[in-house]
Amino acid sequence: MTHLSKRFGSSLVLNDVTLEVMPGEVHGLLGQNGSGKSTLIKILAGFHDPEPGAELIMYGESVPLPMPAGAARKRGIAFVHQHLGLVPSLSVLENLLIGAIASEDRWRVDWRREAARARETFARFGLTIDPTARIADLPQVERALVAIVRAFEDIRTASSHGQGVLILDEPTPFLPKLGVDKLFDLVRTIVKEGTAVIFVSHDIDEIREITDRATVLRDGNLAGTLTSRDATADEFVELIIGRRVSLYKTAVRDVTALSVAISARNVTGEILRDVSFDIHRGEILGLTGLIGSGFDEMPYALYGARPASAGTVEILGKSQPLSKMSPPAALEAKLALLPSDRLGAAGVGNLTIAENMLLPVLQDFVRWFRLDWSRMSGRASELGKQYDVRPNRPAQTLSSLSGGNAQKVLMAKWLQTAPLLLMLDEPTQGVDVGARQQLFAALDHAAGKGTSILVASTDYEQLAQICDRVLIFARGQVVDVLAGAAISKDAIAERCLLSLGTSAFSNVPEVVAA
Amino acid sequence: MSQAPNQADAGARISPGGSAGPALRKMNIARVAESFALLAATIALAAVFGILMPHSFLSWANVSTMLGSQAVLVVLSLALIIPLTAGDFDLSIASMLTLSSMLIAVLNAQLGWSIYAAMAVAIVTGAVVGVINAGFILYFRIPSLIVTLGTGTFISGVVLWISGANTISGIDDGLVSWVVVRHIFGIPLAFYYALLLCVAIWYFLGYTTAGRRLLFVGRNREVSRLSGIRVDRVRFLCLIASGVISSATGILYAGTIGAADPNSGTTFLLPAFAAAFLGATSITPGRFNAWGTLIAVYFLVIGITGLTMLGIQTFVQNLFYGGALVLAVALSQLVRKREPQDFT
Asked: What's the complex ipTM?
């Protein structure tokens, strides 16, 4: 694959990248979010068309690009994405056959024969998975294995000699260590048959363990290719982040001088394990980590939106068990949450801007047992003006706004209540640069007035710009903390990338003020 | 950056329904046309029948009967839009209506209870059915469509059982008198009850915080939950409300015909749905609303009464109701720009 470029509008997201993978090789693909990894993969899937000049050569044969839909599959290119693409309520066998069921017309499916074949296939890989089991009843690891086996079988059907490329797109973040080992065993068996595997991951240790060579992308460019065994973790990190001048940053404040507003104590949830931290009055605290590290679970756990199995939250000195926390109770305590799923969990797209914006404060507009709609409309356009919502038309539906403007509306929705703590999950996803600065300004302003702000995000640049402190999570725990002047995009990226290394666990920093 | 070019709209009014947009005048005209299309169609339909049959269709006796006798359908449709707004179906409303009217007949006419006691029992039964529906829907997380389809059929069985599958007449004249015999301005009282409920539900949905919460729950449960709305409680109360109002409809129905029969009440189910969905295409398009529902009922009633008076056979009634339901939903989908709706 040579000279791959891809332009979205005016920005070049992939610039003349060449990737060479040998048959029977496991090739790693690394890079930060936005480095062009997923674009590259989507070109291989035929989902994006590359710019002219790109070439794809498979086993000495030139493949015309862009590939029409379905061609990737016929060429023996198969994908396993993080969410695996399995239907949990159906059986393993049905999931294995889904490709055949979708594309072939068969008048009779011989289930017994298919089951026997599936068992045979699993046995070849040394797996004992019952083809009649429901996917939902399997442990996470076996689900991943089923997805990989299915993808590999697709390749074998496409080309008799196992010639093909299997692309594993971050299959490991949600797996326990033992599961990762099993997955690696399967990958090794697969490459023995001559198939090439492209393994996408953020986890440098894993890349060094399983891959032969690894290619690193940075800002759409090829940063370099390393021979995995010989390269150190630091070399990888340097290649991923690059050495650049840091971006501008807001004034550094020492937040430890401020009084503690809210303390989380021993929070344990689905991924979170016994996490404690303090957040000060008017502090902007960032939570980050790699995918699957659990940092994004924290806002929902504190808000009572997802059950926490243990832990307490101390609000202005008053302690409350998280098991009893619920959204109404959280709001009562002046905690607010702005989820990342803008039109799925944060606001209702087909209701109006005014209705969405004023939902938490409706009670203020009751006059003589009646909602005063003209006053509500006035307030909505006032807030719209204050947060620069464009167009500022309160009666328009929320879904008619761009992502950034919808986010302004939803931010106004909670900030007008002057919460003690506002928690945001990926607040600037899909938000353009201009609106982003306005959202940051609004957060800064609120923090200046004493609202504490918690931002869970994988956008390191954003965290570096607005946060007073950043907690870095790995495997459900806080493994590192950056504060004040030490925060930069690269510093956060570096700590995140190294967070899965065993060394990160030996000295868990003191996050809680004594 | 604050002098955005859109301040002309700054003070723009938003209607309680919220969709009468202030955006552009041209859009406003389209909006208004859409909002009142059903009303215009209703008037046009009445005019057509009026021209065809000036002496029979437009006679005061006929108009008064249409307004009075179909109050039952109005009230039942209004009962339905409450859970529909909150995103739940209630298919048991028509059976509940029948059960309630049969309870009145059995307790009052057969067992000699006072009419007040019988009415109280009917209302309480409605509330109990609401609790049962809500219990299955919310505790076991079963789609409301399935639960209420089941309980509705179950209730029909109970009605046949307690009535011995017979029509029971002899209900207290007082009730009949207060429903259809007494008139104000020549229209039976039943019509005014329906009107009163219509005002109440319009006010509730448009001008109370509880009404807003209902709307949010119906549109997106996750958003509502994360905004601190107690979603299950809202749905619970909505299902009780539809149970209670449909049993009140049963009382009205018993008063309208002075008797109760075990079957005719259930035929109201489809017209009620047709009216609710057709109503959602007008006044505040895209939302279930009280006035739209009222207009829709009379649109359907005028159509059917007119056709019947023209001597068309009774099966036309089903064609009309069934066709109206599907067309209404298709129309409301056009209003919503064919966004898929989640009716569970």
From this structure: 0.76
- Contact: A355, B18; criterion CB under 8 Å: yes
A504 has pLDDT over 50: no
Query: How many structural domains is chain B composed of?
Result: 1
Q: For residue A265, which phi and psi values (nearest 5 degrees)?
A: -130, 125
- Are A408 and A436 in contact by the 8 Å Cβ rule? The answer is no
Look at residue B30 and tell me if it is in a domain.
no
Angstrom distance (rounded) from CA B180 to CA B252: 9
- Alpha-carbon distance A364 to nearest alpha carbon in chain B (angstroms): 10
Residue B324 lies in domain: 38-335
Beta strands A421-425 and A452-456 are parallel
**Helix or strand holding residue A167 (H, E):** strand A165-169
From CA B246, how far away is CA A139, in angstroms rounded? 48
Nearest to A371 among B11, B208, B227 (CB): B208
Q: Is residue B224 part of a domain?
A: yes
Q: What is the pLDDT of residue B27?
A: 57
Give the pLDDT confidence of B200-238 residue by residue, as tens digits: 999 999 889 899 899 999 988 999 999 889 999 999 999
What pLDDT does A59 receive? 78
The pLDDT, as a whole number, for residue B88 is 94
CATH code at A4-241: 3.40.50.300
Instruction: Name the minimum distance, in Å, from the CA of A371 to any CA of chain B.
Output: 5
Distance, CA of B125 to CA of A105 (rounded, Å): 54
- Two tokens at B257? 């015909």
pLDDT in tens, A87-141: 888 889 988 888 777 666 777 778 888 888 889 888 888 888 888 888 888 888 8
Top-tier CATH class for A253-334+419-514: alpha beta
Give the per-residue pLDDT at B8: 33
* The pLDDT of residue B13 is above 60: no
* Residue B169 placed within a domain: yes
- For the record, the structure tokens of A102 come out as 């979708």
Nearest by Cα to B155 from B106, B102, B197, B206? B102
The mean pLDDT value of chain A amounts to 83
Per DSSP, A214 falls in state E
CATH 3.40.50.300 residue window(s) in chain A: 4-241, 253-334+419-514
- Select from A325, A359, A439 the residue whose CB has the most chain B CBs within 10 Å, as the one to mutate to test that interface: A359
Interface test with B, best of A368, A381, A416 (most B CBs within 10 A): A381
Find the CATH number of the domain harbouring B126.
1.10.3470
What digits encode the pLDDT tens for the residues A310-342? Answer: 899 999 888 889 988 999 999 999 999 999 888
In angstroms, rounded to a whole number, what is the distance separating the alpha carbons of residues A135 and A185?
A: 21
The answer to whether residue B193 sits within a structural domain is yes
At B315 the pLDDT is 80
Contact A377 B215 (CB under 8 A): no
Three-class DSSP category at B66:
helix
B11 to A381: CB separation less than 8 angstroms, yes or no = yes
Mean pLDDT of A464-469: 89
